[in-house]
Write a structure and sequence with these properties.
The protein is of the alpha+beta class and 314 residues long. The chain has helices spanning 3-17, 106-118, 139-151, 155-174, 179-186, 191-205, 212-219, 223-234, 238-257, 261-267, 273-284, 288-298, and strands at 22-25, 32-36, 40-47, 50-56, 58-63, 66-71, 74-78, 82-90, 97-103, 132-136. The chain is built from 12 helices and 10 strands. This is Helix-turn-helix domain-containing protein.
């Protein structure tokens, strides 16, 4: 099968699986389809560790001063939960942006990474890890994604075949061009792995008081070394990352659960609702009420969809 033929089949399947603009969930936990019928301006997003495969259209992400283009037959891997900015560059009603997002099961990834590292023959070592990277779909990964989309059109195949295909997709990523970054994120003894562990701690306890000294101590690093390593991975400071996580989480609570700004601010750890409103407007460029209203207009969140372990909104 040629790449063009594979893409055509993916697009036809995605048109069935993602009939509505926004996010559509499926029978596999955490797996969701993304559809945009028009270009979307650059906005702030926060993704969980995931694999995003674009079947049609063109997106661009920004992390610090770096830009990441991912378009048809490319995929993006976020090996750690990262706040960045994203925009949709090519999408029309006739040719919408179509993509599938697959969460990275960290326990399964760690098991596979250990097996991969034990059988190192022909596998690139986990050098120069990166938190985010875009790559072209190779035939093995592309075929696995196509089989996943086919399975997801049938409830029985989704339940019986889906988990195995997700495992294969994760294996293909771990052994491909981006595998080094993902395997390093899972290796807690590496600097990259220690920062990944700290990020997961922040996403678990964002509503509590967290200080950099404690995070550094848990990582077995000095505060100065921790701060430098943290910024190298996330392009931001630990305190700013925590604040960003809280603001994204509050936005999600207002959009999904209909909470007021005052209630959401308390849920995410703010003691002052006025301080929350100031920082929210400075970060998103709109008041909490304006942003929640705009997000409801942009997103077609599937009924019953809930946030995962990490904040994830676009």
């Amino acid at each position: 099968m040629t790449e063009t033929e594979r893409q055509g089949r993916m697009v036809r399947l995605m048109a069935v699986l993602a009939p509505n603009e926004g996010y559509t969930l499926c029978g596999l936990p955490g797996v969701k389809f993304m559809r945009a019928n028009a270009v979307r301006p650059r906005g702030k997003v926060l993704y969980e560790p995931c694999i995003v495969i674009v079947c049609q259209g063109h997106k661009r992400g920004y992390l610090g001063d770096q830009a990441f283009d991912y378009h048809s037959q490319q995929f993006l891997v976020l090996s750690v939960p990262l706040p960045f900015e994203g925009e949709t560059l090519r999408a029309t009603p006739a040719e919408p942006l179509l993509a599938i997002s697959i969460p990275i099961d960290l326990q399964l990834a760690a098991e596979l990474a250990l097996a991969v590292d034990e059988a190192q023959s022909g596998i690139a070592p986990p050098a120069a890890p990166r938190g985010i990277m875009a790559s072209k779909l190779d035939d093995a990964l592309g075929d696995a994604v196509l089989r996943l989309l086919q399975a997801l059109t049938c409830q029985v195949e989704t339940r019986l075949l889906g988990p195995g295909i997700l495992r294969e997709i994760l294996f293909r990523v771990l052994t491909g061009e981006q595998g080094g970054a993902l395997r390093a994120a899972l290796a807690h003894q590496s600097q990259f792995g220690k920062i990944g562990k700290a990020l997961r701690r922040i996403h678990m306890d964002y509503h509590r008081q967290i200080d950099v000294a404690t995070l550094a101590q848990e990582a077995g690093m000095s505060p100065a070394a921790f701060h430098a390593s943290f910024k190298a991975v996330t392009m931001t400071s630990p305190i700013q990352y925590l604040k960003t996580t809280r603001l994204h989480k509050a936005r999600l609570l207002m959009v999904q659960d209909g909470l007021t700004a005052a209630t959401a601010s308390g849920r995410v750890g703010y003691e002052s609702s006025s301080q929350f409103s100031r920082e929210f407007k400075r970060f998103f460029g709109r008041t909490p009420l304006e942003e929640a209203r705009e997000m409801r207009n942009l997103l077609a969140q599937a009924p019953g969809a809930r946030e995962g372990r990490y904040v994830s909104a676009q």
